Amino acid sequence: MPIDGEYEPSTMSWVADQVADYEASGGTRANTLRDTGIPVFLVTMRGRRSGKVRKIALMRVEHDGEYALVASKGGGADHPDWYANLLADPRVEIQDGPAPFDAVVREVTGDERALWWERAVAVFPQYAVYEETASAAGRVIPVLIASAGEH
User: Fold this and answer.
1) Helices 110-123 & 126-136, crossing angle to 10 degrees?
2) 53-81: per-residue pLDDT in tens?
3) What is the distance between the alpha carbons of residues 45 and 55, in angstroms, rounded to a whole number?
4) Is residue 19 a part of any domain in this protein?
5) What is the DSSP code string of 54-115?
6) Is 65 domain-assigned?
7) β-bridge mates for residue 129, sequence order
8) Nearest to 106 by CA among 117, 95, 90
C-alpha cells in the first residue's frame, strides 16, 4: 500500500534536491552520497506529527532483499527525526532503482544489530566513528531493517 498524501520535502535543500533528482531519474542520478560514490536508496514514510509524506536518502546497506536504516545522525547526541517517525508508523516505501516497493521496518538489537552494524560499517566506515561520538553522548545508534511483504 503506497504512502499517499501531501509530500513535504526536507528543509535541507541538498536532501530535497537529491530525493527529487533520484525519483525523477528512476535512480540513475543522485544515487550516491554526495561525492563519496557510496550508493543510496530512498525511504518514504509518514511524519508522526504532521501526517505528511517524508522522504530521505540513506546509505545502501542491503542483504538478501532487506535494507538497514542506520539512524546515525552523524554520531550526534540525538536520534534523527525520521527514527521517531518510523517508530510511530513502521510502514515505508523503499526505492532502490526505478520502482519503489512497500516494506515494514523493525528495530534490531543484540546479535542481529551487531551483524547489520558490521554490514553498515563495511559500506560506510565512517559509521564506526559516528558510533564512538554517539556513545560518548550516551546514545546507541539505532538500526532498523526494512523487509518487503510484511504488511
Assistant:
1) 130
2) 999 999 999 999 999 999 999 999 999 99
3) 6
4) yes
5) EEEEEE--EETTEEEEE--GGG-SS--HHHHHHHH--EEEEESSSSEEEEEEEEE-HHHHHH
6) yes
7) none
8) 90
Could you tell me if residue 143 is inside a domain? yes
113 is in which domain, residue-wise?
13-148
pLDDT of residue 149: 67
The CATH code of the domain that includes 92 is 2.30.110.10
Look at the chain and report how many structural domains it folds into.
1
Residue 109 domain-assigned (yes or no): yes
88-136 residue pLDDT tens: 999 999 999 999 999 999 999 999 999 999 999 999 999 999 999 999 9
If one counts every other C-beta atom within 10 angstroms of the C-beta of residue 144, the result is 23
Checking if the pLDDT of 151 tops 70, the result is no
The one-character DSSP state at 123 is H
